[in-house]
Amino acid sequence: MSKKIETTTCYHCGDLCDPIEIISDEKSFCCNGCKTVYEIFSENDLTCYYDLQSAPGTTPAEISGKYDFLENQEIANKLLEFDDGKHQIITFYIPTIHCSSCIWVLENLNKLQASVTTSQVNFPKKTVRITFMSEELSLMQLVLLMSSIGYEPYISLEDYTSGKKAVDRQLIYKLGVAGFAFGNIMFLSFPEYFEVNEFWLDRYKLVFRWIMLLFSIPVVFYSGWDYFVSAYKGLRSKILNIDVPIALGISVLFLRSIAEVVFDLGSGFFDSLTGLIFFLLIGKYFQQRTYSFLSFERDYKSYFPIAVTRIDTYKNEKTVQVYEIKKGDRLLIRNDELIPVDGILISGNALVDYSFVTGEATAVQKISGDKLFAGGKQLSGVIEIEALKSVEQSYLTQLWGNEAFKEDKVQAFNSLIDSISKRFTIVVLAIAFISTAFWMYHDSTKALNVFTAVLIIACPCAIALATPFTLGNMLRIFGQQKFYLKNANVIERIAKITMIVFDKTGTITTNKKSVINYEGEALSEQEEVLLFNLVRASNHPLSRQLYDTLSVKEIIKFDTFEEIIGKGIEATHNGITIKVGSAKYVNYSGELNSLQTSVYLQLDGKYKGRFNFQNTYREGLNDVFEALNTNSKLAILSGDNEGERERLRSLLPKGTTLLFQQNPQQKLDFVKDLQQKGERVMMIGDGLNDAGALAQSDVGIVVSENINVFSPACDGILDASHFSRLPSYFNVSKKSLKIIKWSFVFSFIYNITGLYFAITGNLLPVIAAILMPLSSISIVVFTTIATAYEGKMLRKK
Amino acid sequence: MSIIYLLLAISIVIAIGFFIVFIISVQKGQYDDVYTPSIRMLFDDELVKETPKTKPTKTEKQD
């Protein structure tokens, strides 16, 4: 321990070594945990870890008894991928994986523990798949080993309920088939484009054509099948979606080509046909690619623990699966554990952090006999509770039974392309029939030819590509700006939002730091030192916050120190007694402000003053609200009390709706109500209490300080550090729609050119083969350049 | 029969062969993670540097 003025950074994790610095092996560490990890690595010749990246580690968390449930065979079996009695395979999700050193050390686990056979990291997904010998190493020991080196796996109730999900690779297969056939058909049809009367070509033309026909069959019936299904579904529900003209184009192309080959009329349009499907699928693939390390479908299950400690009537402790908890069960909740069911506090000091489930900013103190709600996190020591309900019936988890969670937002949304395709299809069919009627009258031999040619050339390939490429590019640009969207459709929905509803705690406030103002007698330097050292020794969240704001750096040793959980802390130094805690604890009898969180200070039996904790709003909040207010209405829904009403009033533009003490169901109903009034609502929230409103809203965005930890089901996750950029994300979404509209204009020009050839009855395969890819590629190039430009502007701001 | 039929057949069989290989590699999940292998490749060099120290113990364990 030293009294250094300049601060060093930890060799292992890179954090500031403050207030304690531990020196070992001539390197500084911020805590014993980091030092231990370093020692483990150096003993096993794994110091290479530090060569790959400087300060790559994360501080290991203290754990005791947390993973006891892994000894329960039934739970373990659910988590294991493979188990033959000797070898076991398991995949862990490890949120702390962040650099190449992590991959290296996790893949070298067998150097730390010889019973690990292999381990393989999937970096984008932040998972590691481990094969180990179960006779020598139990699952729990493995998890403890990984936790001790700072790679604690995240195991939640979701891992227990959902089996291993099969990866859907259908689209890649379809793309593969289409690409394979397209390439081969291009080779085979190339000689015919030039119509040279060459002996060899003439002789084998038929063979080539039949091979092309064979190649195109799987493309139409396998790769392109989705378009027929979608068109059929659309027609059945009386919607002319974009897939209707596409399916029509594909079938006409295919049938006419077959007819041409069978009756030896020409070479058919197999090249255009396969090329069309290939390009369409590329667009689909491009749009589908998303962030594998994020999940947008989470519910309470991925936040809740798998197991909990149950105490039976004989005072025996046993870990049980949370679904087995029945009414009346006694449960043991340790420090930092989650309360899985609604219950009554029996014994122990409960300090429960409900910020995630109700939106209350500060942890609440509970005494024996109080009701505790599921989802709260216990912060001080061990408590015992009695379950009142089962997991599914608890106050919070009931919310997931609401209909809002079953709706498909993409289906309900009428996108730009749908409205265009409707008119487009009608116009194309009209042109086809009119031109056919014209040719029937003039030269009936050409009529069928013209009819099919119009449908072929008008196939809206370029239109269908404009949306996926523009929105797919935008999705990536947003991702670079730490705004992660679930799918491309969300961008279109954002552009149409008319009202934005914010949650307060954790969304527009930050829980990283808080503003504390002092009220009372000024403190001398010596008194400040005393206070600083007192709060330094306490782990209470308020003490930690207070500690962070004090700037004294002198460390002293107390003669006595006592922490009375739930009340306060007290210490003596050179005969001076210092007490910090609740009003009651320091015998403060003055006026109390029940809406504000305060900590009271007493020195030598005399009341000195109090520290008031205020919410800290995110930087640039004012500007964000002003900018958003120009285009949409705003509202704030908070689960917290009204203590901040006046401050919010002064911060926010006039006309903003402010509602406090809203429970999760009320939030959902509020959004629903707005939607019934015709508003398109965006909900911006952060916790489980917003989950209902997020699901109900047209676009639900979650603000997160750390995108790797849990966030409820939503349409997008915004990194809290980029909160102030929100208005520009709105602008760019609107611009994306403009880009799509321009692409439509270009593809219409191509279509009209093509229609000229089609209507006059001059559509040769070579013209179709040039025009179709040309229009598709130019649209892709245009959208890529336009979106890249928008992305550049976004980065500059 | 003309040799061109044989050549065509061979070329198509080879093409389909490659196509099947592609499908199998997708099926086995080779394209699921295209990032980590690019980093893993670089680690082999790091390991070589310290092999004199670790090699004896390593071979013992494996045997």
Largest interface, Cβ cutoff 8 Å: A-B, 26 and 27 residues
The end-to-end distance of chain A, rounded to whole angstroms, is 45 Å
Total DSSP E strands of chain B: 0
Q: What's the overall average pLDDT of chain A, rounded?
A: 81
Number of domains of chain A: 6
Strand order of the largest sheet of chain A: 16-28-27-26-17-24-25
Helix content of chain A: 40-55%
Instruction: Output the helix-strand order of chain B.
Output: HH
**SS field, number of helical segments of chain B:** 2
Helix and strand topology:
The complex is a heterodimer of chains A (797) and B (63).
Chain A: E1 22-24, E2 27-29, H1 32-43, H2 48-52, H3 73-79, E3 82-83, E4 87-93, H4 100-107, H5 109-112, E5 116-122, E6 127-133, H6 139-148, H7 157-161, H8 170-193, H9 199-223, H10 225-236, H11 243-262, H12 270-288, E7 307-311, E8 317-321, E9 330-333, E10 343-347, E11 350-353, E12 364-366, E13 371-372, E14 377-378, E15 383-387, H13 409-412, H14 416-442, H15 444-457, H16 461-480, E16 483-485, H17 489-495, E17 499-503, E18 509-520, H18 525-536, H19 541-549, E19 560-564, E20 568-573, E21 576-581, E22 597-603, E23 606-617, H20 621-629, E24 633-637, H21 645-651, E25 657-659, H22 664-676, E26 681-685, H23 691-696, E27 699-704, E28 716-719, H24 726-759, H25 765-796
Parallel strand pairs in A: 17-24, 17-26, 24-25, 26-27, 27-28
Antiparallel strand pairs in A: 1-2, 3-4, 4-6, 5-6, 7-8, 7-9, 9-15, 10-13, 10-15, 11-12, 11-14, 16-28, 18-23, 19-20, 20-21, 21-22, 22-23
Helix pairs in contact in A: 8-9, 8-12, 9-11, 9-12, 10-11, 11-12, 11-15, 12-16, 12-25, 14-15, 15-24, 16-24, 16-25, 17-24, 24-25
Chain B: H1 3-27, H2 36-62
